[in-house]
Amino acid sequence: MSPHPFDRYAAFTDLSALKAASVKPLRKSFRVNTLKSSVEQFKTIAGERGWQISPVPWCPEAFYIEREDRSQALGKDLLHLLGHVYMQEAASMLPPALLDPQPGEVILDMSAAPGSKTTQMAARMQNTGVIICNDVQEKRLWTLKTALHRSGVTNNIVTKKVGQWFAKNMTERFDRVLCDAPCTAQGTSRKDSDALIYCSDDNIGKMAKLQRELLESAVHACKVGGRIVYSTCTLTPEENEEVVRSILNKFCDQLEVVDPRTELRITNDGLRKFFDKAVEDSLIVQNSLSRNPQSEIRNLPLLRLWPQTFDTEGFFCAVLKKTAPTRHKEKFDFVRFQEELLPPARQKDIAKQCEELYGTSFLHDRDQLFLRADQIIIANEACADFKMPVQNYALGIPFARKLEGGPSFAPGASAGRRIRLQHEIITLRGQEATKNVLELSEKDVDALLDGKDISCPPDYRGDPILKCGSLIIGTSLAQNGMLKNRLPRWVVAKS
User: What is the pLDDT of residue 297?
Assistant: First the structure.
């Protein structure tokens, strides 16, 4: 019988417990998107639905979910579809928590897709500052954009570059850098049994080489005094402890390891015990690696999560601080966004149309509107001012679409300059509307989620905001006593 891929960890952990945990289904976990809901609002709704929730120690806005009624998948729950919560494995919430991005900072998420960590950071930053959300694969970028739009992230600039590009081209541009590196993904075997197929020694070696390149690029891109978090969802020492040791050997005078037990705010005993155990488990691996006479770096406060220890995916994290420059900064010509920043007068005109329709402009201080084709996009002023030597792939979230000609439902609005607000801004800020809001029954909402049109009072015209209880569902076109269904395909979950 061929050896199991986990047999190589016999010296580090309880092998039978590791194998048993790795075939056990993962616990379901939600992270509350505080850009759209508060933790208290979520707790209230969870109680109404009979969910049993327990906190994730390292992420105060996240919870494990237990349900008796599992007739509907959590992924089709309206809270998830509208971006009020994000279905995210608990271990993957750890890297953003360790990075600890602050409002107003400039952050690089080097391998951002599918977007769970990016949206977590945006919420912590309250949509201020800038997050450069980078990935290299077209399909993954579309998944990333969907997550950003659903979550209402307006402080994002999406780029399509290999991670190594940032070392030379954006040296010392970022306050913090998240390097959640591609890996052999052994830690994901609880949700994907095929994960263990791709962990040959050859593939582990190739991944480790790529990871060293990406982490080095992250170090160069980070400002002096800034923080870098390196993370993987695999278990191999070659991709984890050894990658960090390699970088520390190379930049021994410019980097230091941050101990999360002393540098991060410990809010409860559970979190302290978690950090202590995760560091201890990495030290066991490090001590074994130290038998190599060439290895001089040891006893580092790195975090290793075995699946059986915390009932999560397998995961690894390291927190580094940059203490001195690592390469010289080069000068580059900056490239304009694909989107055109709208003149202040045009932005005021759009705000006026919104106020006439809904009693509010939906624009906050330091918001900026951009135009790309017929799409009006909202981002913040920090994004508008951020200069890059490459054209962006995307920016912000949809705000409105230009509609040429036809009747205007906004009093005083000129024909040819009409706009139609988009689902993304409505679900982010629709609660601010004071008029043209239509309350729906749960039966009406179910029909919309089935992809159907529904009836409405005949005096409604234009694009009313649809609301059910405390949730803004979206918007629709009201004509002749009917609402034309305009919900995006990711919301129309049952069709």
Answer: 66
